[in-house]
Amino acid sequence: MRNDRSTEDVALGIRRRVFEHAMRNNGGYLSQACSAGEQLAWLYNEELKLGEPTLPPVPKPFGGVPSADNPDYHTGAGYNGPAAPDYDRLFIAPAHYALVAYATLIEVGRMAPEGLDMFNKDGSSVEMIGAEHSPGMEVHNGTLGIGLSTAAGLAWGRARRGEAGRTWVFMSDGEVQEGQTWEAVQACAHHGIDNLYAIMDVNAQQCDGAMDTVMEVGDIRRKFLTFGAACVEIDGHDLDAMRDAVREPHEGKPLIILAHTNPFHTMGILEERFPRLHYVRFKSEDERARMNASIAKDLGVEPVDYAH
Amino acid sequence: MVEMVNRPYASAFEKFAAGNPDILCLSADLTSSCEIDGFRDRHPDQFVSLGMAEQNMMSFAGGLGLAGFRPFIHTFGVFMYRRPYDQLMASIAYPRRKVRLMGFLPGVTTPGGMTHQSIEDISVMRSIPNMTILETGDATEVESICEAADSIDGPVWCRVLRGSVPRLFDTPIRVGEMRELADGDDILIVTSGICTEEALRARSALQKAGLSIRHLHLNTIKPFDHKALLDHIGSVRHGVITLENHVTEGGIGSLVAEAMADAGTGKRLVRLGLKDTYAHGGSRAYLMRYYGLDALALVRGIEDLMGQSFGIDEDDLDAARVDAVHSIVKAEAL
Fold it and tell me: Largest CB tally within 10 Å, which of A37, A165, A286, B5?
């Protein structure tokens, strides 16, 4: 399944949707759309080999958690198509990017726009922190740092079964503070897992603020290389750089693309909120109105009429 | 004299798993300590070494489960739930991956002290939705644990005995079925794991004292059939006593208490086990005596339940087995 639109256009569409949603709901994960727009657009619009969605465009309501008494349970992975041997798989490791990921699904025609109206509504499967059953999700990743390990196990298993499809992880840079990330890379290197790919949104932000003030992580690329991954650093808003990066040879190792990004890219007014960008809730009606006008102008749309 | 079986898990796992490409043997640097070194050497294609990195191992196993494999994780029980509890929850239990968690060194079966003794694992696992819990009490149960665990559609926590293990039973584990070892009508004794052997040691002395004992051995702790237990409780006159190699909070004592409370059973219950305490390092026999997990503790508990003394002391109990701390059937002194 390929989208006819340009990836630049998809990235813009993602940001417009997240912007509109944040305005209507008096806040949201705006900065994540700024930093990750190109990465998710590139994955879904170009790089991932995915089949047609197997789940309905308008997401079904919450259908219960996995249990022996819930035989109809399924994950949200069907929005990425079937889990066939030749197709790629994608985990959104920082499930807090869910709003941006859902917007991406809409922009590439995998989910209906109405899906976003269900975001964080009681009884909905379109959860604020992406759950297994949320559109486009296959595993729970709300607990940061477990995504790469799970993907490593899946990738190892798929290689053992002779499947051609790759396993991809969209990661966040805050996850390198978790020891498990390094355990995962170590295991990948030891077992020669090279059908595993990650692209990491290196926006240098985390919940408490700028990462350097919370816990310095140093030279991430050098750490990944030392632990045994192949690693490329790029400008995370440069699509050609992404296209080149994925061609980096990485035999016997996972490939990790560090996408350095600007947390207010295309929404310059958000810089006013630095360094608390994780979840932008407007502090006043005045701020909301100013951000509405400024970001709408940046994104080339009319301000959102959020009063109605 | 009871038959002792050396390293029953080693041969049982190899017999069960070898040649089945969907079964993987995962290890976290305790390969010989979990008796899978022979399997590693003879079936390297099914062996995945994940090193001392349990957080990754748990999520990695979840990923293997997602790929359709049935990983058997081998390490000491404590290392599978204390540090990587988050991963156990999110990567294995929630999505109902068919991961078989083979937890060695249950309770005080190791002189390794607090860091090595899983004394609250059953309590933890009982509170995890989707989890099944099995516990081995003899060599026959160890020999049948792989098949029993692999019959479960979901994750399974197993308390596995290693080294030299007594053979008490001649039939394999049947998941969900408790073993009725005596059918008396005064007192119901409920035990699991290594405590069942202790109860067997006490039985003849109790019978000589004129007590009619009903004795159940549990190898399936979750899911649990309350009705069968309540039928047994209804068959005894005086009350129930539980003995477990675990803290008394959340283990089989709690399980029995919950069943009795739910049913409004008006009988006394005495729960024996680790009483809201950590253990420390020492031999199994010493620890079982020190912490009140052995046959003598059971007798004293029954005396408490009955409100009378039977004059039974250590000499009246069947001979205790004394395991050598340093033994050729154990990889190290732990």
Answer: A37
Burial A191-208 (b: 16+ CB within 10 A, else e): bebbbbbbbbbbbbbbee
Domain that includes residue B266, residue range: 179-306
**What pLDDT sits at residue A296?**
97
The answer to whether residue B322 scores a pLDDT higher than 80 is no
Do B229 and B147 reside in the same domain of the chain? no
**Chain A touched by B52 (CB under 8 Å):** no
pLDDT in tens, B70-98: 999 999 999 999 999 999 999 999 999 99
Residue-level pLDDT at B333: 67
Q: What percent of chain B has pLDDT over 70?
A: 95
A·B CB contacts under 8 A: 112
Mean local confidence (pLDDT), B202-207: 91
* Amino acid found at B151: S
Question: pTM of the prediction?
Answer: 0.96
Chain A: nearest CA to B188, how far in angstroms? 32
The total number of residues written for chain B in this structure = 334
Instruction: Look at strands B268-274 and A280-281 and give their pairing.
Output: unpaired
ipTM of the prediction: 0.95
The residues, ordered by sequence, that sit 6+ positions from B315 with a Cβ below 8 Å of its Cβ are none
* CA–CA min distance A171, chain B (Å): 16
Chain A residues in contact with B129 (beta carbon < 8 A): 65, 67
pLDDT at A141: 87
| pLDDT tens digits, one per residue of A286-296 | 999 999 999 99
User: What phi and psi, each to the nearest 5 degrees, are found at residue B65?
Assistant: -60, -40
Calculate mean pLDDT across residues B189-210.
95
B206 shares a domain with B147? no
The alpha-carbon gap from A221 to the nearest alpha carbon of chain B, in Å, equals: 20
Q: Rounded distance, CA A151 to CA A138, Å?
A: 11
Q: In this structure, are B300 and B261 located in the same domain? A: yes
In a domain, B194, yes or no: yes
Q: Name every chain A residue with its beta carbon within 8 A of the beta carbon of B92.
A: none
Which chain B residue shows the shortest CA-CA distance from A193?
B60
CATH number at B69 reads: 3.40.50.970
Number of Cβ atoms within 10 Å of the Cβ of B291 = 22
Tokens of B110: 């190791």
pLDDT digits (tens, 9 = 90+) for A82-92: 999 999 999 99
Please give the radius of gyration of chain B, using alpha carbons only, rounded to the nearest integer.
19
- For chain A, list residues with pLDDT below 70: 1-3, 308
A156, closest residue in chain B (CA to CA): B64
Strand order in the sheet with A230-235: A89-92, A167-172, A196-202, A255-260, A230-235
Cα B286 to Cα B119, B243, B245, B314: the distances in Å are 16, 16, 13, 14
**Beta strands of chain B (E only): which ranges?**
3-6, 23-27, 47-49, 70-76, 100-104, 132-135, 156-160, 164-167, 179-183, 187-192, 213-218, 220-222, 239-247, 268-274
B129 touches chain A (CB under 8 A): yes
Same domain for B220 and B196? yes
**How many folded domains does chain B comprise?**
2
Class of domain A7-62+74-299: alpha beta
Kindly give the pairing relationship between strand A89-92 and strand A230-235: unpaired
- Residues β-bridged to residue B103: B75, B159
At B233, which CATH number?
3.40.50.920
Domain ranges, ordered by start, for chain A: 7-62+74-299
